Each structure stands twice: as structure tokens, then as C-alpha cells.
Amino acid sequence: MVQGPGGIEAGAAGHGERERIIRLIRLQRPALLGYLVAEVAAVQPGSQVMLARLAELLYVEVLRRYAHHLPVGQTGWLAGLSDPQVGRALRLLHSDPAHAWTVEALARAAGVSRSALALRFAELIGESPMHYLTAWRMHLARQILQENRYTIPEVAERVGYNSEAAFNRAFKRYAGVPPGVWVKRDSRRP
To answer: Model confidence over 19-35: pLDDT tens digits?
Structure first.
């Protein structure tokens, strides 16, 4: 099981989940898997690229089907995406993480009250919308910092912080060190 920002979980939890995912793949086998097998057999220029993209498509399709068939009471990021209101809030947070989001603005966009969204979000995702947003921003900040194309103030602005000082404090809480130290450590890794 892999856990990402905001407690996003990817991977099957146990044997029963693995069997369920295999059944979901079999539902899609005729179209996508048939094409995948044909591409493996036809060794042509560009086959590796095609296989990589087909594997990505298969992965997305499995996630879609898994999310669509989640049992009642399931929690986690996919359950949140499947919920109409929480899913809308997640899509907004991911599409524009630099926006000055509030729970009130997210709730208004999702068509529910602030308290209803906060409660449902915490039930499904395991944390508040604002904690999730901070974790998502910090995840994005680490990715951007690894690219070494932007200064720390530019990264701060890109992920929604109006001041470098506020960004530095948030990053240190998340990563354990300020962004400048983190960049130096990351640049020494092989």
C-alpha cells in the first residue's frame, strides 16, 4: 500500500481487494487487454511508448472501475472522489491549488453547507479540507523544487503562498526542514 499526500492510498489492501481488482480488469479485457496483447506481439518502432501508454490507460480504467464499485462505507481518496460533494471539492483543490480556498468557498462550489462538507470530507479523506490542501501544496512544492527551475519565492507563489515566510514555515512543518535546506539535501542525492 502506497500513501501519498493527504493520506492518498494507492494499491490493494489485501487478498480480497486484489481479487476484486482482478475481476474488474476482466470486465475490460476484450477491448484494452486485447489491444495490449496485440501490441506486445507486434514488435514495431514505437512499441515501447505504446505499451507504456496502454498500461497507463489500463491503470486508470482499473481505478475508475474500482472507485465505481467501492463498498458502502469505504473511506479514502477514491471514495472521496466518488462522493458528489467531496469529489467536487477535491477536483477544485487539485485543479487550482494556488487559489485562496476556504472551506466556505469549497462548500459553496460543492452545493453543501460548510459544516456538511467539512464533516463528510473528514469522514472520507481522514482530514480536513484545509489540511488536505496544505499537504497537496507541499507535495507539489517538493516536485517543483526538484525541477530546480524556480526560486523558492516563485515556488511559494505557484503553490498558493503570498509570502515566502509563510511558505517556509508550512514547508518546514511538512518536510521537517526549510525548503532551502531540503533543496540542498535533495541535490546531493544520486
So the answer is: 665 665 555 556 666 76
Closest among 130, 125, 152, 127 to 141, alpha carbons compared: 152
Other CB atoms within 10 Å distance of the CB of residue 167:
24
39-67 residues labelled b (16+ CB within 10 A) or e (exposed): beeeeeeeeeebeeebeeebeebbeebbb
User: Which H or E element spans position 10?
Assistant: strand 9-10
All structural domains of the chain: 2-68 (no CATH), 77-126 (1.10.10), 131-187 (1.10.10.60)
- Residues near 50 by Cβ (< 8 Å), separated by ≥ 6? 39
Sign of the CA dihedral with 169 first, then 167, 132, and 106 last:
positive
Whole-angstrom distance, CA of residue 125 vs CA of residue 133: 12
Q: What is the pTM of this model?
A: 0.69
Which helix (H) or strand (E) segment holds residue 27: the answer is helix 15-28
Q: What is the pLDDT of residues 89-126, one digit of tens each?
A: 999 999 999 999 999 999 999 999 999 999 999 999 99
